[in-house]
Amino acid sequence: MAAVTAEMVKNLREKTGAGMMDCKTALKESEGEMDAAIDWLRAKGLSKAAKKADRVAAEGLIGVASGAHVGALVEVNSETDFVARNPEFQSVVAEVAKLGLKAGGDTEKLAAMQYPKKKVSVREHLTELVATIGENISLRRTAALKVKDGVVATYVHNQAAPGMGKIGVLVALESTGDKGKLSEIGRQIAMHVAATNPLALTDEDVDAEVVERERAIFSEQARESGKPEKVVNQMIQGRIKKFYQEVVLLKQAFVIDPDKTVEQALKHAEEAAGAPISITSFVRYELGEGIDVDKGDFAAEVAAAAGH
After folding, report:
1. Angle at Cα 281 formed by Cα 278 and Cα 282, nearest 5°?
2. Are residues 63 and 169 in the same domain?
3. How many domains does the chain have?
4. pLDDT for position 46
5. Is 239 a member of any domain?
6. Which of 38, 67, 234, 308 maximizes the CB count within 10 A of its CB?
7. What number of other Cβ atoms are within 10 A of residue 242's Cβ?
8. Is 40 in the same domain as 72?
9. Are residues 166 and 118 in the same domain?
């Protein structure tokens, strides 16, 4: 059995908001496995923030660009938010996002493309920018969506400049309907995606491992109720149904009109557009998601600087 350290307990507490002793017990029960300990706390109802994503925001900008039947997202990272407000950096993000329309979601291809009005690649130009600005700057990722007939709607949240901000969303709508109406409902759904961060478009698109993990937690919670197995199974099915309603885009309550699901809002929009509408895919980028940044101990840094 792995030894449970104070640092492990501290990390689990920060991730879940559970009490110190509960975190220690969870780690012991889970043999030091962090994910298993989080699940244990959730199953016992002790986690206050079990769904909180384990990610620390890196700096930089998400850039968005769109064209006829296509849209693209890019994430360009910097070390500080100060650089993200730099007009030169913003100009570069805008240019890279435009190139993303031709890169088709291939980050390596985008990095190797020639930077506009330069004899160097995007990657090389970013390296030059490091020397100019004095911070590490990198192209992290890109995504692109296309439609045969319809629109790729875009939305940027926490906009720092036109077409760039902290969160960027693309939503692909296939339809022969009125393009103006499609763009209108598409932007609303993109705003919804920015707000709710759905896991998938449909039930079938949700990762099977994620569903089984939730089912295991729900099963343990239901069986602790002491109710008959038939009732327990019904409780589990009810919780799984609710889980899908929370994470599947088409089943979520539409943030702009919570009395409708996104799917129902889309059906309603078909009347104005004059043709059936289907969401074929969506992409949501949030700045720095998944990047592990060592924040360090600020108080200790100040004390060290003061000579203590």
Report:
1. 120
2. yes
3. 2
4. 66
5. no
6. 38
7. 12
8. no
9. yes
